[in-house]
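User: Please predict the structure of the protein below. I'd like the answer in structure-token form so I can feed it into my own downstream comparison script.

Assistant: Understood. Taking the following sequence of 218 residues as input:
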Amino acid sequence: MALVPYDENVLPALSKIHSSSAEFHFASHRLRLAQDWNRLGVAAVVWDAAVVLCMYLELGHVDLKGKTVIELGAGTGLVGIVAALLGANVTITDRKPALDFLSSNVNENVPPELQGAVQVSELTWGEGLEHYPSGSYDLILGADIVYLEETFPALLKTLDHLSSENTGILLSCRIRYERDERFLDMLRTRFSVQEVHYDKQRDIHIYRAARIRNKSEL
């Protein structure tokens, strides 16, 4: 998740986000993710969108073995870690202030034999994209990264740079406001977008996007 303010009126159980850790069982591994709301805010909390996306990946809806994957706004790193446990080569990214925290979670939860399949890297959306090979990823993942309207153009620019016609994009999010729908409308100007999963209990949508083939550059 991006290091930005979050509307506390929509937060679920406050006790969950203020806990120092969160535990999960994915891909036959017990995971314990550190959380640090007081220091890093939304970037250091496991949100429902990340959990639902991990469940979706674990069910095998996407073939991850040997795939080149990048996670945007990773926060605690849960989604990228699970993708690596499921066989992907993963670059897990977030802004610089979150990297030490993110790296610690990766080191604590990725087995030694898989550490080489995971890279933690700084990425501020829309900036320094030349450090990431254009269109070279099989899959782009994002959990709860669609909620601050001022970041939408930079996020779209980043998705555009990282993807090719062969890249899949999975975005897991709660649609809270009209601005979230506006991002989906922006996304549809360059990508085909379809909802592939909805978790009714958590009110989380997963959208799959793919670059529109033969679409002229805007």
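That's the full token string. The helical segments are 14-18, 37-40, 48-58, 78-85, 99-109, 152-162, 178-188.
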